[in-house]
Design brief:
Blueprint (H helix, E strand, L loop, with lengths): L23 H6 L1 H12 L6 H15 L7 H17 L1 H11 L4 H5 L1 H7 L4
Pfam family, one: OS-D
Protein name: Chemosensory protein 14 variant
Organism: Bombyx mori
């Protein structure tokens, strides 16, 4: 989950910034909101428009190391990763199983993931 920022893919050089002003902290602080996004990403629940965009964009962002992410999306992704790794490892593991079944990204982002462990 290297780029868990709310984005929507398009052919230009970056993903749309349409959802760059979403309050990531509000989502992370609310079990209900966070669970809604995770359930959307896992295909277990309904998706909001921004959740749907994230679900569609996440595989590309992971594959290409978030190169099309805006600065705000990268910052939001870092915040989400830090939160999930340190405070919700159960959700982190579920997302990893879905989006990284062969551990390709776990190896690619190992240093980044280790760097955020313990830094909530």
């Amino acid at each position: 989950m290297a780029c868990v920022a709310v984005t929507w893919a398009r052919p230009e050089s970056t993903y749309t910034d349409k959802w760059d002003n979403i309050n990531v902290d509000e989502i992370l602080e609310s079990n209900r909101l966070l669970k809604g996004y995770v359930d959307c990403l896992l295909g277990k629940g309904r998706c909001t428009p921004d959740g749907k965009a994230l679900k569609e964009t996440l595989p590309d962002a992971l594959e290409h190391e978030c190169v099309k992410c805006t600065g705000k999306q990268k910052s939001g992704a870092d915040k989400v990763i830090r939160h999930l790794v340190n405070k919700r490892p159960d959700l982190w593991k579920e997302l990893a199983v879905k989006y990284n079944p062969d551990n390709i990204y776990q190896a690619r982002y190992k240093d980044k993931i280790n760097a955020v462990k313990g830094s909530a």
